Amino acid sequence: MSNSPEAARALHPETRLVHAGTMRSQFGETSEALFLTQGHVYDSAEQCEARFLNKDPGFQYARFSNPTVAMLEQRMAAFEGSEACRATATGMAAVTAAVMGQVQAGDHVVAARALFGSCRYVVEEHLPRYGVDSTLVDGTDLAAWRAAIRPNTKVLFLESPSNPTLEVIDIAAVAALAKEAGATLVVDNVFATPLFQRPLELGADCVVYSATKHIDGQGRCLGGLILASEAFITTHVQTFLRQTGPALSPFNAWVMLKALETLPLRIERQARSAAQVADWLAGQSQLTRLIFPGRADHPQAAIIARQMSGPSTLIAFEVAGGKEAAFRLLNAVKLIRISNNLGDAKSLIVHPATTTHQRFAAEIRAAMGVTEGMIRLSIGLEHPDDLIADLAQALAAI
Ligand SMILES: *Cc1c(COP(=O)(O)O)cnc(C)c1O
Q1: What is the largest distance, in Å, between two alpha-carbon atoms of the chain?
Q2: 157 CB less than 6 Å from ligand 1?
Q3: Does 67 sit in the ligand 1 pocket, CB within 6 Å?
């Protein structure tokens, strides 16, 4: 199969995830090869020079590029429908490069306040150290985005649905504000997964993933991905990655490349189970709040209907009785395990207020909607009836 993006676009997304980007060696292997090599040798000094001048296509050094990593990048670009993709060592490396690569001292960034803790650190604390101002807004309030944008605003950044409150932001509307302001919009699409939400089609300039989550999907490797136009990658990302060095290991790229083949199967099943578990949880008296993007009672259900083609594999809920009750529930589940990871084949549960969002002051947590009784549940590949039975006995225990 041809590697060209045009050829890939003629195929259905599931097919792209199995075939796009495949580069076969002289051995004609069926499964993609793992090129675990730091560097490459050249036929001549002239070829070596040409490669460093970008006049000879080929690989040089694994900090810049690697055949296995390139297969992952091309496969992801073909799936997302972007011109280009760059892989990074972690999701945070992807977020940091996508934002930091665009700004310099004197610039300004606006971000939705309901963010993954480390994303919020980058925007709120890291950027200002280098003279880049940032403003955090209620991402669901378009007037707040508009009011925060200044003449020197270069980047808008958001996560939708957000971690852990599954707040949904109107991506097309924020993308229009970015365009108007001459800024770019970067979307962290982890919670939606590439299967259920396509930010580039909604007007975003750049999409980032923690591939650690659903893309690996089996709790093995860390990784990140940045997807955008060729111009965006060349201007903002390429040199930053090459010179600062958050390169993805070829081994981790190989794991994720193979994992992409089963991504739709896993996500569809996990999301279907999540919907079943959420509907069951909605009927439980111990709960004071339930947030699931697939339900009609989600606060942004109308936006979800417009911009997402499926829900999420995550559920957020609040139990009456605050931290004490939440801890009793976490300590009572047996099949579901306590872990701050998500998107795994194994169902995982966490108490955000004391873990992922522990470093924020109580009033900031409250503004983010992270209450003392809130629990985040990541649904895996187990049978949903077993998960419901586990939650039933645990809820009875609180
Ligand atoms: C996990 C996560 C990240 C960070 O990814 P790592 O691979 O852990 O660095 C960023 N954004 C969101 C929404 C996440 O869930």
Answers
A1: 74
A2: no
A3: no
What CA–CA distance (Å, rounded) separates 178 from 232? 15
Tell me if 116 CB under 6 Å of ligand 1: yes
Considering the four listed CATH numbers 3.40.50.2300, 3.30.565.10, 3.40.50.970, 3.40.640.10, the one that applies to the domain covering 5-260 is 3.40.640.10
Separation of first and last alpha carbons in the chain: 56
pLDDT at 366: 86
pLDDT band at 1 (very low <50, low <70, confident <90, very high): very low
Separation CA 24–CA 1 (nearest Å): 10
Residue 206 Cβ < 6 Å to ligand 1: no
> Which CATH fold would you assign to the domain 264-396?
Aspartate Aminotransferase, domain 1 (3.90.1150)
Residue intervals in the chain for CATH 3.90.1150.10? 264-396
How many angstroms separate the Cα of 144 from the Cα of each of 134, 217, 277?
14, 35, 34
What is the rounded distance in angstroms from the CA atom of residue 273 to the CA atom of residue 262?
17
**Comma-separated ranges of CATH 3.40.640.10 domains in the chain:** 5-260
pLDDT tens for 62-90 read 999 999 999 999 999 999 999 999 999 99
Residue 397 exposed, middle or buried by CB count within 10 Å (0-12, 13-18, 19+): exposed
Check pocket membership of 84 for ligand 1, CB cut-off 6 A.
no
Q: Looking at the chain, which runs of residues are DSSP E strands?
A: 84-88, 108-112, 133-137, 153-159, 184-188, 206-210, 224-228, 287-291, 314-319, 337-338, 348-350, 374-378
Cα-to-centroid distance, 119 and ligand 1 (Å)? 8
